[in-house]
Design goal:
single chain, mainly alpha, 9 helices, globular
Length: about 240
């Protein structure tokens, strides 16, 4: 899967134009709209690969649909990040309050409270790691079904997240991400390198999206959708 993922973004006759468009969107990401479009394209890649269309990456067309897909994918990410963040914030406030009490002679009770808060902090950390692991599955669920709610379906997440093929896809995506990040940091030392970075990041993101799509391709998420009337492309709500 790794070799296929790395080669996938370069496939097709329009490879150069596709990477140029993706890189330009990445360079202009601070204008927000290109951020939505870039993420929407990655959703399209996951959708296409998941259903078995792996010959060439999708084209940059149907910009309105791509914008909506990007917006929804970012909303999904926001929700997945929000819950652990709220838990962490609550723990920090609680720990701060208990430490203040301890400073005024809280004694053993305060020490026990701190220990409990640290335990809950570990739980919150595990929640955050679980959220990061399941986030690509949530994106894939939306990409395949076209429904926002499917990204939060416990049964869907359990089916995909517990599949070893999905695990392999996630690990490959993580490896690609770290390699691209490392190379980008090296290239940041030169002006020419800085100009190339957005295009390289886009290439890596497409390769990672391929890995996620391939990872969910044979799971129940996709096989359940292979019916005459698919939900793909329907309203995300």
């Amino acid at each position: 899967m790794l070799e296929d993922a790395i080669g996938y973004p370069w496939r097709g006759e329009q490879n150069v134009a596709r990477i140029l468009i993706g890189g330009i969107l990445g360079a202009l990401v601070f204008f927000i709209v290109p951020l939505f479009l870039g993420n929407g394209y990655l959703v399209r890649v996951v959708r296409q690969v998941a259903v078995g269309d792996t010959e060439t990456p999708p084209a940059f067309d149907d910009w309105g649909e791509m914008f909506v897909d990007g917006l929804v994918s970012l909303l999904i990410m926001f929700v997945y990040i929000l819950v652990p963040s709220v838990v962490f914030t609550g723990l920090l406030v609680g720990i701060s309050s208990v430490l203040d009490t301890t400073g005024t002679g809280g004694g053993a009770i305060s020490g026990m409270a701190v220990a409990l808060l640290l335990v809950f902090g570990l739980v919150a950390l595990l929640m955050a790691l679980a959220a990061l692991y399941l986030l690509p599955a949530a994106w894939a669920a939306y990409a395949v079904t076209g429904k926002f709610g499917s990204a939060f379906s416990p049964s869907t997440l359990r089916t995909v997240g517990g599949d070893k093929r999905y695990l392999v896809g996630v690990l490959i995506a993580v490896v690609i991400h770290f390699v691209v990040q490392f190379v980008s940091n090296m290239m940041f030392l030169t002006i020419v390198g800085i100009l190339v970075i957005p295009f390289m990041v886009f290439y890596g993101n497409v390769a990672s999206a391929y890995a996620i799509g391939a990872g969910v391709a044979e799971t129940g998420l996709v096989t359940d959708q292979r019916e005459p009337e698919s939900n793909v492309g329907h309203s995300p709500y």
